[in-house]
């Protein structure tokens, strides 16, 4: 057996994870990375500082041209990409900013996914091609002011009238894309259980005031949805699902993207710290030459690349049709939690410069505080895993 020399050690890929990817997967990753570098990174600090995403409609159309919207869905103009390809795209988008990845996740993994999986053929044909192209932005109305982790407590109500129309009343809160959406997937209580509705946002009685004064996800549109006697035809209801299994399955798909995306934010922060440690001098030498700094960098690298391996493993399981919701909870819980710690540790290496928007670290850290909460809080995912491990339901 002939000996083969090991390739050089790569500080950006210390485990050689890139070797696990196919040429097509690398091409997807590199395409999204270049787009983010060209279109997002030059402007993101300013957008974040001003609390705006002024070109969201333009970005949506460009992302549609890349095939990044509804990326893993089949047909209706969607790319039909693999779960791993979609995950790699999420990682690169969140390496730019969590708000950009949220735009894509809500569009594809929540609004489009709900219509694709539970909608009628008419609903699919009407909305999915335009959403895949980024011509129409979608949002997903589940969370309410008094119903976050407990969606069964939602108060939004849909009543069926004698002629077959539905009338919706209620409020939704913390809805990404809401103020710019052309269509909303809204979940409401009915006499037969929770149902989903496809709501054109120009329907009388629908409004979506934007939520301001945020200190996280500032380069993202976040809104309240107000439904005041919104009248919809019978064909507006998603026909293929009744009950909370509908919205929860959509959330599971979105959480999968977060497993990858959080590692993008972590990578960006880690690489900023690694570069800084090599150039910042104190006491006559680069701070990367001190033991305490090297210990921080080593610990961050271990958690970062463990997280990427975990995301990769879950992606392969999803592509094989073997991924369970509990495994997605495992990934979301671990990767977001570790990503925040990587950002915080990176900030300590950058010192006072770590709070400056000239570096991405504090922006990623504050964004991840929202990511830690949405699509299931830490506590909810701990209880999902606790139930799976013990067989005992501790939610109530």
From TrEMBL:
Coiled-coil features, chain-numbered ranges: none
Names of required cofactors: FAD
Protein name stated in the entry: glutaryl-CoA dehydrogenase (ETF)
One Pfam assignment: Acyl-CoA_dh_M
Domain Acyl-CoA dehydrogenase/oxidase C-terminal span(s) in chain numbering: 243-389
Family: Belongs to the acyl-CoA dehydrogenase family.
Enzyme Commission identifier(s): 1.3.8.6
Species whose genome carries this gene: Streptomyces xinghaiensis
């Amino acid at each position: 057996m002939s000996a083969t020399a090991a390739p050089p050690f790569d500080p950006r890929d210390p485990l050689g994870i890139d070797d696990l990817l196919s040429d097509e997967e690398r091409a997807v990753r590199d395409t999204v990375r270049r787009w983010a570098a060209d279109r997002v990174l030059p402007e993101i600090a300013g957008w974040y500082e001003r609390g705006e995403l002024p070109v969201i409609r333009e970005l949506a159309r460009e992302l549609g041209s890349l095939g990044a919207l509804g990326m893993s869905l089949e047909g209706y103009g969607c790319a039909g990409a693999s779960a791993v390809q979609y995950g790699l795209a999420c990682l690169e988008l969140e390496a730019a900013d969590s708000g950009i990845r949220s735009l894509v996740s809500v569009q594809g993994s929540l609004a489009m996914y709900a219509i694709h999986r539970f909608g009628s053929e008419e609903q699919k044909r009407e909305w999915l091609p335009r959403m895949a192209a980024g011509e129409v932005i979608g949002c997903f109305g589940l969370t309410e002011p008094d119903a976050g982790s407990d969606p069964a407590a939602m108060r939004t109500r849909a009543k069926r009238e004698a002629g077959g129309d539905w009338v919706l009343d209620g409020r939704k809160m913390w809805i990404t894309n809401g103020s710019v959406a052309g269509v909303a997937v809204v979940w409401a209580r009915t006499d037969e259980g929770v149902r989903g509705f496809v709501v054109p946002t120009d329907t009388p009685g629908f409004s979506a005031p934007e939520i301001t004064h945020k200190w996280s996800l500032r380069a993202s549109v976040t809104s309240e949805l107000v439904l005041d006697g919104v009248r919809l035809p019978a064909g507006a209801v998603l026909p293929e699902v009744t009950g909370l299994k509908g919205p929860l399955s959509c959330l599971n798909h979105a959480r999968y993207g977060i497993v990858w995306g959080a590692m993008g934010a972590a990578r960006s922060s880690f690489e900023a710290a690694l570069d800084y440690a090599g150039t910042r001098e104190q006491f006559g030498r680069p701070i990367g030459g001190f033991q305490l700094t090297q210990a921080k960098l080593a610990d961050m690298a271990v958690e970062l690349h463990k997280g990427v391996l975990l995301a990769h493993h879950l992606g392969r399981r999803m592509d094989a049709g073997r991924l369970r919701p509990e495994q997605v909870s495992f990934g979301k819980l671990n990767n977001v939690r570790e990503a925040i710690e990587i950002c915080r540790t990176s900030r300590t290496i950058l010192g006072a410069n770590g709070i400056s928007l000239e570096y991405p670290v504090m922006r990623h850290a504050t964004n991840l505080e929202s990511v830690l909460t949405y699509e299931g809080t830490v506590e909810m995912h701990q209880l999902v895993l606790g139930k799976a491990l013990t067989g005992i339901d501790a939610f109530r």
